[in-house]
Amino acid sequence: MKLFKLHELEALNYIELFPGQYTGGGYMKIESIYLTDDAFSFIAPAVKRGFEQYEPFNFFVLDKSCWILIMNEVEKLNEYLITDQDDKLDEYISIFYKERKLRDCKLAEYRTIRQEIVSLLKDFHEWIASQLEDVKFITLIGI
Asked: Burial, 64: exposed, middle or buried (Cβ in 10 Å; 0-12, 13-18, 19+)?
């Protein structure tokens, strides 16, 4: 799991993060980064906690203050993974994975590839933080 640049994409099922306020002109911008739907599914609960209006397959222009809230949530999620707090992780992801059966499956995935997710969260956090040094908005696009 990793962040992708446009030239690395192999399919069309990605979440796009555009540094700036999206104003149209088509998706798939060269300055964006991309996450597979699967990779983003591990970040989605943090996004939902930081931005309650988040819904998959939509786009949202989020300002710096909103991204700071999301980044704080990413840090919490990361802490639960690093310290093996599976009971807190279960409660944490319940905001996005409400159905018990689905949440149990997702929790098993978190446990199985814990280190990969921690690495993804680190890369995601670093990219967002670096972009917020230069832009006031980052647009989240569910493609």
From this structure: middle
Partner residues linked to 36 by β-bridges: 14
Calculate the CA dihedral of residues 80, 62, 36, 57 and round it to 10 degrees. 110
CB atoms within 10 A of CB 135: 16
Residue 18 in domain: yes
Q: Is residue 1 part of a domain?
A: no
Compute how many other C-beta atoms are within 10 angstroms of the C-beta atom of residue 26: 5
Give me the domain span that covers residue 14: 6-142
Q: pLDDT tens string for the chain (143 positions)?
A: 799 998 888 877 899 999 999 877 777 888 999 999 999 999 999 999 999 999 988 989 999 999 999 999 999 999 999 999 999 999 999 999 999 999 999 999 999 999 999 999 999 999 999 999 999 999 999 86
Element (H, E) at 16: strand 14-19
